[in-house]
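[#protein-structures] MJ: dropping 4-hydroxythreonine-4-phosphate dehydrogenase here for a structure pass
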Amino acid sequence: MSPKIAVTIGDINGIGPEVALKAVVKKSVLSVCDPFIIAPFKLVNIYSPFLGIKLHVMENEDDFERGKNLANIYPMREFKNVKITLGQPSKISGQIAGESIEIAVEMCLNGKASAVCTSPVSKKSLNLAGFNFPGQTEMIAHLSNSKRYLMMFINNKIKLALATIHIPLSKVSKTITHELLAEKIEILIETLKKDFLINSPSIAVLGLNPHAGEDGLIGDEEKKIIKPVIEKFSAKNFKIDGPFSADGFFGEKKFKNYDAILSMYHDQGLIPVKLIDFYNTVNFSAGLNIVRTSPDHGTAYDIAGRLIANEKSMVQAIILSAKIYKNRANFNE
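AK: finished. structure tokens for 4-hydroxythreonine-4-phosphate dehydrogenase:
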């Protein structure tokens, strides 16, 4: 049976509806899963004529139809007096995006969907609507009752995880502890085995400071925290190396020698990953009780409504969600 992928609508004032519609009708997507968009029908119907896409309104999760340029819509409740303000965050756009996420997660927990792929949202819009989370990852972890999670970015050339996510750079050093790093490495090992079927994964851990601290001259987090955690796992025969100086590690393309990399903070990992392959990179939330992916970009307010958004990352996100769902099933057999 083909996996059922619940695709959220995202921010209606951004490119979420556009990339979602474009992606779910792709042959490469339909060849591996049955994707459907959770959205108010009237809203997606605004976009569909301009994109040349027909819509099928599903009566339930099993009412899936296939056809050329046909998108399946799992209808949310219709919202009254919705005003689309392209390029701007708003309470109503946050409300629609948030409720779409809630429905998708619930469907996964109840077995009505195999995985969820979330379209880009505005954190400000979600907060205006009362969804007070730093991002979708934290929100979905809460909704799925997942105690641990790890943000990863994946394409055909690299798998990279983040030790810290959406926090100010000034707080990164204090946030990185022995316990945090050990937990993130544990999740990373588990997901590489379970979700990517890599039996004995190799992991590279990046340092926090320039030159990985230069043996304590430019910071001591590597000596006091990062290296001892690596040694703890190495003593248990896990293949974990580091801490590496990030600039040299990526400059010399050492990432090709490892199954995954653990970065200490957001931009340290995201800049090289997106330079390696921006359009085909996927955000994956490892460690959750459900499978969740998303494209690696945001709402792109600057091009919202112009119908020029690139849907490649969304396509890859849906495909990866189906692959991980199948891998987990095979791993658990």
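MJ: nice. DSSP finds twelve helices and twelve strands in the chain.
AK: one more thing. The first strand starts at residue 4 and ends at 8.
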